[in-house]
Amino acid sequence: MLMETPRIWLPRTGQTTSYASGDDGYFKAGNPRKTRFINGGGGTISDRAAGLMWVEKPQLIIPGATGVHATNQIQAARGDWANSTAYAAADLAKDTADSTYWVCAAAHTSASSDTFAADRAAHPTYWRQTVWTASAANLTTPATMTWPNALAYSLGAKWNPTTGLNYAGYTDWRLPNMNELLSMVHWGNSTGPCVDKTVWTMPATPCVYWSSTANPGYTSWKCYCQYLDVMPSVNNNAQTATYYVRPIRGGRLNANG
Questions:
Q1: Are residues 146 and 110 located together in one domain of the fold?
Q2: What is the domain range of residue 207?
Q3: From first to last of its 257 residues, what are the pLDDT tens digits of the chain?
Q4: Are residues 102 and 208 located together in one domain of the fold?
Q5: Phi then psi for 132, rounded to 5 degrees?
């Protein structure tokens, strides 16, 4: 029986050194990593091998674990820059036309006569809409949260029209499962974290992320993945524990077989 041509290639592990003839580093089987992860420039990272899209910087859209409510979900870090011409990365600005807040992705200076609305129109990739940032600190520091909050805040507006996440033009975000979290692992690092450091930005410690997957033997506890070391650590904990969150979209959902 002939082997079928695969629809997708599994990604390479990242091991490039061969320690024995016929090992992983010898064959380097799978999709090359350099063409796998693509930064879309709009706050997302696409995985061409797995057909997934990840939020690049969750701290820009995920609220803090405490102190977040309807009256303070959006706070300007240094004020309202709608009439400024010099912008620094992570600056917040308000579009006075509709009171929508935006976060600056790259430091730049616009023309002296530009209003913020004009600058955003001239440089659309420099700005990202933000609807969840609770404070200036959350612009650079990821927030940890309980599993119920992780699930709720990752769920896109497609699934929850009332409070669901609408980010980078997409509404079908969700909390990744364990297989999807493990797909980020890079097995070629000699130091942690065990991800491709040219692609992913991780917290200093402990690099632990919630999954949407339950412990099959004790379903009230949920699984997580830790990337701190050179190898991933998979475990589970009570839903009241607080870990980091990175929403995802895409992949094959609710398929039979």
A1: no
A2: 32-64+142-250
A3: 455 555 666 777 878 888 887 888 888 887 776 678 888 777 899 998 888 999 998 887 877 655 555 555 666 555 566 677 888 877 777 776 666 778 887 788 888 878 888 888 888 888 887 766 667 777 777 889 999 999 998 988 899 887 788 888 888 999 999 999 999 998 888 899 999 888 898 887 889 999 999 999 999 999 999 999 999 999 999 999 999 999 999 988 886 65
A4: no
A5: -125, -15
**Looking at the 3D structure of the chain, how many domains does it have?**
2
Nearest CA-CA partner of 41 in 196, 172, 168: 168
**Containing H/E element for 221?**
none
Q: Are residues 150 and 211 in the same domain?
A: yes
* Beta strand pairing call for 52-55 and 248-250: antiparallel
Cβ atoms of 224 and 217 closer than 8 Å: no
d(CA 208, CA 206): 6
Whether cis (ω within 30° of 0) applies to the bond prior to 193 is: yes
For residue 3, tell me if it sits in a domain. Answer: no
How far, CA to CA in Å, does 20 sit from each of 26, 71, 133, 240, 246? 7, 60, 49, 45, 36
Q: How far apart are CA 14 and CA 197, in angstroms?
A: 12
Instruction: State whether 53 and 93 are in the same domain.
Output: no
C-alpha span between 240 and 147 (Å, rounded): 7
- Measured CA to CA, the distance from residue 195 to residue 186 in angstroms comes to 5
Q: Do strands 127-129 and 44-47 pair parallel, antiparallel, or not at all (unpaired)?
A: unpaired
pTM: 0.79
What are the contacts of 90-95 at 24+ separation with CB within 8 A? 90/139, 90/140, 92/130, 92/133, 92/139, 93/120, 93/127, 95/120
